[in-house]
Each structure stands twice: as C-alpha cells, then as structure tokens.
Specification:
Blueprint: H1 4-20, E1 63-64, E2 69-70, H2 84-90, E3 95-97, H3 99-108, E4 115-116, H4 129-138, E5 146-150, E6 162-166, E7 176-178, E8 183-186, H5 188-194, H6 201-211, E9 215-217, E10 225-227, H7 234-243, H8 250-257, H9 267-277, E11 291-292, E12 296-297, E13 310-311, E14 315-317, E15 322-327, H10 335-350, E16 354-359, H11 360-364, H12 366-379, H13 391-402
Parallel strand pairs: 3-8, 5-6, 15-16
Antiparallel strand pairs: 1-2, 4-7, 7-8, 9-10, 11-14, 12-13, 14-15
Length: about 400
Amino acid sequence: MVAGCERRRLEQTLAAATAWGIPSFRCRAAPRGSAQRTPPSSRNPAGFAPCSSRNLAGLAHSSITKYQFKCGFCDCSPCLAAPLLLVLALSDMTLFLAGHTALEFWRHYASAPTMPTNRLPHDEAPPTWCEAQALAKALPLLKQPYNVAVSKHDDRRVSALVRCMVLSCPLPEGSFLQTGLGTYVASAPLAFLQMAPALPLPSLIELGYALCGHYAFTPDPSSMALEAPPLASAATLAHYVGQARKMHGAKKARRAARYVLDGSNSPAETLIAMLLALPLSLGGYALPAPTLNPRLTTGKHDAALVSQQCYRPDLFWPDQRIALEYDSLRHHAGFEKVSHDFQRGNEMRSMGLTVMTISWPQIAQLANTDRLAHQLRELLKLRKRPHPEGFRQRQASLRNCLIPRKRDVLWR
C-alpha cells in the first residue's frame, strides 16, 4: 500500500488533475460497471472509488513504484494506461518553468489552479529527458524547447526539449507558483523580469501591459482577445523588479515597469496608450498617463439621460473628463453596433464627458496619429512641447516595434 506521505502527495496530484479536467483511465483488467459492485472495504478513507470507476483518485488505493502503478482493485500487473502525467507528479522530480515557457503557461493555462509556494530551483536535480517527455504529455500546448530554471551552471541541459535558465541569485518571495501537476511555474513578475534581456524596451513595456490587462488569447492564432483576469498589477511588477536587483535584466525591467498601466482590455488599447503616454525619449507623445477602462457610474440627475448604470471608456483622463474610445473594425462593424456606439457616445457626452474616437487607420498612419495627439494636447490644456533632436527616429523605432500587429508575438 501507499505510504502516508506518498498517499498525501498522490491525493493532492489527483485533486489537481481533476480540477484541470484531465481525463482518467480504466484498469484494463477490471470489467466495465464493476465499480458499482466494489465492496466498501476496497475504498480508501477519503471515499475515492478504485481505478475501474474512471476516477483518477482510485490510484490512491494502489501500490506505487517510481514509474509503475499496480492496480489496487484487481492486484494485476501495472496498468498500461497510466498517464505520463502521474509519472511526472509521483516521481522524485520537479520542473520549474521559466521565461517564455512560463508566459505560454499563463497564456494557455491561466485558469488552471495554482497555489503559492516558497520552493525554489535551488538544490533540485537537473531536468531529464523523461521529465520533459512527461511535461509534453501533461501540458501539450507548451512549445518546445521548454525554458526550465536551474540553480547552477553545471545543471544546465541543452537539447531539443529543454533549455535551462540559471537562477543562482536569491529570488523574492512568490517567485514560483505550484501547479499541482509536478511542476512549478514562474510568477508573472518573474517571467516579466526574465524576458527583459531578450526584448527591446517597448516590447517589454507591452508585455507588462498584457500581464496587467484583462485580455488573453485562445490557442487558435486567428482568435480574438478574450476577457481574462490580470496576472499582475503595475504595482506588483514594480515592487518585484525592485526587490530582484541582482538578476540579469533587472535595471531594464525596472525602467519598463515605470511605464506599465493597469486595466487594458485589448492589445489595441495597449498600443494606443503606449503611443500617447510614453515619453519623448522613447518615441511617445508624452501625454499624461490615462486611466484604462475605469468604471464611471451615472448619478441620479443623469438617470433620465442615459440607458446604462455605468460606462467604461477605453482611455480616460479624469481631471479633464476626456474619454478616448477605440472603434475596431472587428468589434464595431455592422449597423446595430454602429448605432449602439453612437448612442453610447451621446450618453457619455450628456454626462459632461468630452468623447473622442480612434480607429485603426488613425493608428497606422503617422500623420493621423500626430493630429490626434495634438487634439488631445489642446483638450488637456497642455502647452506644445518642441520635439527634441532625433524624436522622429525614436518614434519610427517605436512604431516599427509595435506596428503591424503580429499575432506571432505571444502577448498580442
């Protein structure tokens, strides 16, 4: 039978697998329907049925070796259907997903259950080929080679499946989260910091917006942005990179975190906010940072003028009550949607807001973007600032980095 510590580890793994929606398997020796005839004594104290019930928790009543599972229901030879997921979870290995692989995890498995942990890659054995194979089976949406964190240069492995990132310096608390599937994944702030050496500064800022935003993508590259809870906040990014000063790329990450804003609902909103609010030294227009998608509730005196209880403008400058709305061709096309947008704009104006709209042609054409930025500067009552020497070159570099919108970039 399974030892107490192994049983607890197994039950935690099986509970996590059930939460992930991973299918169970059937013992090939047990007949269908036999679970209903199972005597109560064959059930474990937690009430889990044996493996023939198609419940992964049935393995908690099995005899286990490192890579084999012996059926506790029929005492037959090891079940050949045992998934590699459980090999990954029950063997003595742990994988710490980092960098680009961690971002892929958060993109494809953001809704999966995770829990805080203080465990770090220090003193862990280097990853093996078998462990990487098991990871490929457990998390098939992650692309190879996997970025895995190790603590020593001697533990690095380079193969078609694994690329190692050395994390030898002390890490702040909360650097990794436990997935419950035999793996640990870098938190969003750590993944942000690990991507700093490989990305130009504008792309790193864009990544920060995505981590702090409310959008994500399905695995289909042609799919639209979906609503998703933010993985971090601008404050947590700044706090984390401020603590991890000894890590490679920390200085660049600290600079990028200063310009990240919370609350973006789409990659296009991120692009607009960056073009308008980044400083002149980075090619932006140096406008005051807007609030993204704030909740504006209607007052009693507005009840007769509006049809909604609250509004969320895409970009909002609260002191001057200026709202900027992005009208995408995908989400705002068609007679009904256009009519709704006109009504929404009129109602926001009746609340005393100045409402402007922007569409993709205004973003893609530099002259149109210049004109919009000048109009906003006038509305914000800001004096016109002369462009410093080399501004147009920096602006072109920023736009080339962010436009066109390529979906092969993970966070767009």
